[in-house]
Amino acid sequence: MLPKTHIFAYQEFLSALELLKKETTGSQSDPTSLSSHFQQVQNIFQEKIITLTNDDLEQEITPNLQAINTELHRELRLLSTSIMFLRSSRSSATSQVRLTAIIERLNTLIASCQLLMDH
Known about the structure:
With 119 residues, this protein is mainly alpha-helical. Helices cover 80% and strands 0% of the residues. The protein has one domain: Up-down Bundle (Four Helix Bundle (Hemerythrin (Met), subunit A)).
């Protein structure tokens, strides 16, 4: 089981991800606004998640948590790239493909956070 400090940090990160997903699935999703919201998500990850210590974790949880955090970080980098590609897309069809990729990445991040908080 994760300590309360970890749970609160992941809950804040999860809430920010869900807000970004809501922004992405909105009818008027603006790439500049998405980029701004993504920056907030990234800041929460860097300030709240990465700074968590493993001192108060059970030893059997630590490797799994580190692996999931590594995967979260990788997905965030890929999400950043997808948002950058969205901002540079010129056609509506390309924008739609990029939005779909962004939503899939957000779903992966959200599912990972929920998995962490359920254990």
